[in-house]
């Protein structure tokens, strides 16, 4: 009998899922699954959830690379809650913390277990800052805030994002012509940042760009263009 046939989904077709670290037993997060997410979790061996805010299924780590590898699946006596034990790659929480349950209520006061801000170097590694920034961009997109510059660009749409990339590319060229090294660094960082927003718009993680560059590595420019035409 299929797992979905053992579960009792609510009126919205969802069932809560508790995700636990297979080695430490630490509870990493709680999210929801629909039938499709359950089936894809079983088929891929990586945990899929259903986003109530976005109204669609998603795989944990699809943008950040922080996937959850399934090691064991259980469900409770009523069949209305799922427990999945996983091997967690990187951080489970979008804040960059290992677990979403980092807030501790102690004697009527709130205690934060761990640093309050994401340390990109610790979570992603010094050389993976582009992945860290992309992850934050996607978080701003999915959890909108009126004060978020990134969210404002997504709200204004693709044309605005492309306009900003064109603007930053021009400013980068001007800085390059001016010969000020610090200004070049500043403008290239702006250009990279807005380019990552474009990737976020299309749900394309930086790894897709890395893969394309790896494909081109070792090819001359002429060879690479010929390979594209073929």
TrEMBL record:
CDD domains tied to this protein: NTP-PPase_HisIE_like (cd11534)
Pathway: Amino-acid biosynthesis; L-histidine biosynthesis; L-histidine from 5-phospho-alpha-D-ribose 1-diphosphate: step 2/9; Amino-acid biosynthesis; L-histidine biosynthesis; L-histidine from 5-phospho-alpha-D-ribose 1-diphosphate: step 3/9
Keywords from the UniProt entry: Amino-acid biosynthesis, ATP-binding, Cytoplasm, Histidine biosynthesis, Hydrolase, Multifunctional enzyme, Nucleotide-binding
Record-level Gene Ontology MF annotations: ATP binding; phosphoribosyl-AMP cyclohydrolase activity; phosphoribosyl-ATP diphosphatase activity
Record keyword Cytoplasm present: yes
Compartment list: Cytoplasm
Gene3D superfamilies: MazG-like (1.10.287.1080), Phosphoribosyl-AMP cyclohydrolase (3.10.20.810)
Annotated region (Phosphoribosyl-ATP pyrophosphohydrolase), positions in chain: 130-230
InterPro entries xref list: His_synth_HisIE, HisE, PRA-CH, PRib-ATP_PPHydrolase-like, PRib_AMP_CycHydrolase_dom, PRib_AMP_CycHydrolase_sf
Annotated region (Phosphoribosyl-AMP cyclohydrolase), positions in chain: 1-129
Cellular component per GO, a single term: cytoplasm
Family assignment from sequence similarity: In the N-terminal section; belongs to the PRA-CH family.
Protein name: Histidine biosynthesis bifunctional protein HisIE
Organism: Desulfuromonas acetoxidans (strain DSM 684 / 11070)
Species lineage: Bacteria, Pseudomonadati, Thermodesulfobacteriota, Desulfuromonadia, Desulfuromonadales
Gene: hisI
